[in-house]
Amino acid sequence: MTPEEMFKQYRLLNPMASDYSHAIFSTYISWDDILSEKVSSILIPAALFEESGEELPLKDDIEALTDNKGNSIALLRITNVEVAPFFLFKEEKSPMIGNPMGDDIVIKLKFKIIFY
Fold this sequence. Notes:
Helix content is 20%, strand content 32%. By secondary structure, it is an alpha+beta fold.
């Protein structure tokens, strides 16, 4: 199922949902870890958003988590967004994209599953 098809199904249950975007972190985290609640956040270098032209997600945004073929696995709601230098997050247990260092700006996205 495509992300658009999954979002249409979600909107049948939640007609006030306005839109979704594709989760830039889809290929970096395991669906099994999200489902088992081992993972509920991820650290992403701010540069990745700049390079890809993606906008930074905001609290309450809906993100479509996809597999490596672009099929939708789940819809996630962003519950918190923190932007800070990496050194403030270096003790985090969250999965991390890339190898940020020191003063590199990273974004910590917390999320929860809302539909799958």
